[in-house]
């Protein structure tokens, strides 16, 4: 599942955010995804359950968070430029 998010381009990531998180009637899918991945990456759930975090899983989660952040950041300059052109 995480590999899927790493394959999305910036436009798809922003579309997920705009179509779900900006609509008051829908669930905040993007926000929940980022929050849940952040909590898992911190390892608090695993330690609370007496388990040890798996380094490969951490790497994939952190890579996914980085990709989502970069995708949103890559889209922002385009948005700013287009808003000044109108």
Uncertain stretches of 5 or more adjacent residues: none
What order do the helices and strands follow? HHHHH
Number of helices: 5
Tell me the structural class: mainly alpha
Number of strands: 0
Largest sheet: none
Quaternary organization: single chain
Strand content: under 5%
Distance between the termini: 38 Å
Shape: globular
Mean pLDDT: 76
**Helical content band:** over 70%
The count of domains is: 1
Radius of gyration: 15 Å
Question: What does this molecule look like?
Answer:
The longest helix is centred in the last third of the chain and has 31 residues, at 55-85. This protein has helices at 2-7, 10-21, 29-42, 44-48, 55-85. It is built from five helices and no strands. The chain has one domain (2-85). The chain is mainly α.
Any chance you could write out the topology, listing elements then pairs?
Layout: H1 2-7, H2 10-21, H3 29-42, H4 44-48, H5 55-85
Helix pairs in contact: 2-5, 3-5
Keyphrases for this structure?
single chain, 86 residues, mainly alpha, 5 helices, 0% strand
Summarize the structure.
The chain is mainly α and 86 residues long.
């Amino acid at each position: 599942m995480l590999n899927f998010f790493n394959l999305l381009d910036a436009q798809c990531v922003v579309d997920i955010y705009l179509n779900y998180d900006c609509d008051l009637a829908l669930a905040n899918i993007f926000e929940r995804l980022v929050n849940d991945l952040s909590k898992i990456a911190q390892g608090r759930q695993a330690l609370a359950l007496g388990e040890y975090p798996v380094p490969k899983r951490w790497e994939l989660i952190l890579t996914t968070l980085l990709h989502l952040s970069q995708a949103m950041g890559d889209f922002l300059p385009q948005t700013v430029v287009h808003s000044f052109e109108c």
